[in-house]
Amino acid sequence: MNLTGVLEIARLSLEVSGLATAISLGLGLPLGTLLGLGRFHGRSLLLSLVNTGMGVPPVVVGLIVAMLLWRSGPLGSLDLIYTPGAIVIAQTAIATPVVIGLTSAALQALDPRLKLQLLGLGASRLQMVAALWREARLPLLAALMAGFGSVISEVGASMMVGGNILHHTRVLTTAIVLETDMGQFGTAIGLGILLLVITFLVNYALTAVQQRGKR
Amino acid sequence: MSAIVGIRDLLVRRDGKVVLQIEALTVERGQVTALVGPNAAGKTTLLLVLARLLKPERGDIWFDGKPVGSQGEVAYRRRIGLVMQDALLLDRSVFDNVSLGLRFRHLPKHEIHRRVDEWLSRLRIEHLRERPALKLSGGEAQRVALARAFVLEPELLLLDEPFRSLDEATRRDLLKDLKDLLPQGPTSTIFSSHTAEDLHELAQAEIVLRGGRLGF
Description:
The complex is a heterodimer of chains A (215) and B (216). Chain A has 215 residues and is mostly helical. Chain A has a single domain (3-212), classed as MetI-like fold. Chain A has helices spanning 3-37, 43-53, 58-69, 84-108, 112-120, 125-135, 137-152, 156-162, 172-181, 185-212. The longest helix of chain A is centred in the first third of the chain and has 35 residues, at 3-37. Chain A is globular, with a radius of gyration of 19 Å. The model of chain A has no long low-confidence stretch (mean pLDDT 94). Chain B is globular and about 45 Å long. Chain B is built from 8 helices and 10 strands. Chain B has a single domain (30-52, 77-215), classed as P-loop containing nucleotide triphosphate hydrolases (Rossmann fold), CATH 3.40.50. By secondary structure, chain B is an alpha/beta fold. Chain B has helices at 43-50, 73-77, 94-98, 100-104, 109-122, 138-150, 168-181, 196-200, and strands at residues 3-14, 17-28, 32-36, 58-63, 66-67, 80-83, 156-160, 188-193, 205-210, 213-215. Classes of the chains: A mainly alpha (215), B alpha/beta (216). Chains A and B meet through helix 5 and helix 6 of A and strand 6 and helix 4 of B.
């Protein structure tokens, strides 16, 4: 595998996992806030479902997404199976429960009277939520890191819905599996180190942001 | 003198138990009113109901001559200020904490700075302006919490046992300052405490609560 090929795979890995993490943040932050701050019937059941979702194996998520996107499946007309879009969908399904669960836990860890105090100072609901997000910024950034970590490192779902097609859906994890299967351990180790370096750099940047907010 | 707050036939239950029941009560405008009673008398419940942070099972409440339900919750709460038992400061600078309510109200930046600096000075904590709020002593934190409410210059100020967690010397010191600060301006204040001695020097009127009911 030449350098151009490696860079292409690395770029696609970052793009699909970055996009999936961003979408899971967009979905998970408001839903986690609702579960963390809201008091409504069925909340405990939803929290249990989310916590279960955090532990669902990626290969099971891959299976469900593959069935949905399969040409004869309910979303087959979208023609997404074996595309980067399919990997983004599967990875979003993996990361979203992680972001919801950790967001909810982060907000529940705050003093519950803080919400009343902010409202008592004249905050609208949105202003109150924004202030609480800022207050919980350290665990919320940890939720973001956990969400990214859960998708950049997974292989089962990407393999099942992406198909590991060269120049199209091959990402670092699926490439490592392929090279290992072919007995190309040197290449597999090199790709593994690259994956670790990318994961480290992204987490280092997020940790720097996280710790900057810590007094 | 007219009433700033009127209450009629108020009933609040928690877990099926009556925690507050008031047939009729008025709070006069421009006064400091002491809300006195032992622990679990219903003082915090009454203040939360007045702040519209707790919904009563029934009852009518008027504010400035109008039913509180006649305006939106946020608009209503922007006419009041609430200080809870603990300082409950945010993990930001003292300036950011004190300016919080003013920013919620979208006041211009220069007005926010003017008011915050004025109240930091009046509460003798201007030297703490840039300090992280979570690194303050108990007395300093409580002064910041008071400044955060006073800076709003609200029509009604609700203070829920703001001295509860302070040592005796700090409590005396803060009480002395409040004696000078509270009677100024058009703000009406309801100030709760479980020790009546705190409030005799400050208040012009007194409400006594026992077991969720008005007492004497």
